[in-house]
Design a protein that fits this description.
- This protein is α+β, with helices and mostly antiparallel strands and 181 residues long.
- The chain is 35% helix and 17% strand.
- Strands 1-2-4-3 form a 4-stranded antiparallel beta sheet, sandwiched between helices.
- Helix 1 packs across helix 4.
- The structure holds flavin mononucleotide.
């Protein structure tokens, strides 16, 4: 089993939208789902459920309902992260933390994944109906998952553009506190 170091995984993960046909072994999927389970949540509410979208026809219908996630149809599996909005004061953050853990675990295990945003989207209710997600629950994300068939490039803003000290906009002391100048 491939398993890369946490910092390495964070820096080398990319959103993968092209997948090999190869199926995901159940023991790997279990590890990916375990990572979701161990995400932090507000008051440890663990308000999530993970719906593995394994049925081909269902996966295609969900993919087609989205605006920017059509590639899900060609992924071996999807995972929908549903969050009980009554069980937590922070449904978006909790569900996002679980989603991120899943993406990182997938990458660490040699899989590829892409977050398909659905929380508050125009298609959230339609996909919720397809997946039988009850009233009071939000569809936080849909994740396309499989063995990667591409190595996309990505870029980030410079760290020194992103970090302030003590006050928004202030870079005073940045060198001393974070070795950034
Ligand atoms: C909340 C959220 C929603 C996203 N929704 C989509 C989506 O619907 N379709 C898609 O192709 N990528 C989606 N992405 C992936 C982003 O496009 C991607 O993370 C970003 O371009 C940076 O690329 P990287 O992940 O490879 O570094 C989403 C990411 C986040 C965090």
């Amino acid at each position: 089993m491939i398993c890369v170091d946490a910092l390495e995984a964070i820096k080398t993960r990319r959103s993968v939208r092209r997948f090999k046909k190869e199926k995901i072994p159940p023991h790997l999927l279990k590890e990916v789902l375990e990572a979701g389970r161990w995400a932090p949540s507000s008051r440890n509410s663990q308000p999530w459920r993970f719906i593995v979208i394994a049925d081909e026809d269902l996966k295609r219908r969900v993919a087609n309902a989205t605006t920017a996630g059509r590639f899900l149809a060609e992924a071996p599996l999807g995972i929908a992260v549903a969050v009980d909005t009554r069980a937590t004061r922070h449904p978006a953050e909790d569900g996002a933390a679980a989603t991120m853990n899943i993406l990182l675990a997938a990458h660490a295990l040699g899989l590829g994944a892409c977050w398909i945003g659905s929380y508050g989207s125009s298609y959230e209710e339609e996909v919720k109906r397809m997946l039988g997600i009850p009233e009071g629950w939000a569809l936080l994300s849909i994740i396309a998952l499989g063995y990667p068939d591409e190595r996309p490039a990505s870029r980030r803003l410079d760290l020194k553009e992103l970090v302030y000290v003590n006050r928004f906009g202030s870079k005073e002391g940045l060198k001393e506190v974070a070795d950034l100048d």
